[in-house]
Amino acid sequence: MGIKINHVFYTYQKKATNATLALNDVSFEIEDNDFISIVGETGSGKSTLAQTFNALIFPDEGEVQTGNYVISYKNRKSRSLKGLRKHVGLVFQFPEYQLFEETVEKDVAYGVKNFGVKGEEALNRAHEALKQVGLDESYYKRAPFDLSGGEKRKVAMAGILAINPDILVFDEPTAGFDPQSSKELMELICEFHKQGKTIIIITHDMDLVNTYTKKVFMMEQGKLAFQGAPSDLFSFIKGYDRLDIPSVIKVAEKLKEKGMGIDPTKIHNNADLVAAIKKWRNKA
Fold first, then answer.
1. Which residue has the higher pLDDT, 5 or 279?
2. Checking DSSP bridges between strand 69-72 and strand 88-91, what pairing results, if any?
3. Which three-class secondary structure state does DSSP give residue 223?
4. Do 252 and 262 form a contact (C-beta atoms < 8 A)?
5. pLDDT at 281 over 90
6. Could you tell me the domains of the chain?
7. Any residues with CB less than 8 A from the CB of 203 and at least 6 apart, and which?
């Protein structure tokens, strides 16, 4: 299941004097089983756009088509959208927005029950989802708000996974994580992609974009400013104050300037850089 964004506009506080045009004629397509990132500076519209994917926000103009579901202003009260969130799961940057039950297992099972799964089966699916994110049975009866930030993020993710959507949208998934925890989480997300799910990462972390995603869309002041490969994006964003190219790319470019035969566009992580240096040395 993919997503088509067609000439989407959205304004916050439409009738106020400080109305903000958050999305301004945005159009592009995310294909089935894509692994993409949407980037941009704070306030660029990337998180607002993500919320249109499962009808948390309805466009003022234009439409978002997800499979057979059409999300538009005229369809905002349509019963045809009832099953949309079974197919598109959004994990917020701040997990507190998604947690509210008295225990972890009840919280994860809540969404499943909304789609007609009851009793023991709902709990079984909740337990399986918790195991997927690395939380064992010692967490089942704990209160979600007593957990660490990283554990809350995993519980929120499990609540989405239990529903088993076709499309997973993660808003700043590694924010606040240490490097090892970030790596473990992204490896888990990569595993979901291997299972056939479409993955959408909302982020400003260019290292994450370079390492994991194959295609990137950049938002700027509510408009789509770029779409293409991460390597092309890093040339495009030079000069942006709050978007920086990955450190491993900077090193590769410096080595190339000094005469080393390295192609920075093929460097996605430290292992790639080390391999490229060894290959050049062996040829030298």
1. 5
2. unpaired
3. strand
4. yes
5. no
6. 1-85+208-245 (3.40.50.300), 246-284 (no CATH)
7. 37, 38, 39, 172, 173, 174, 209
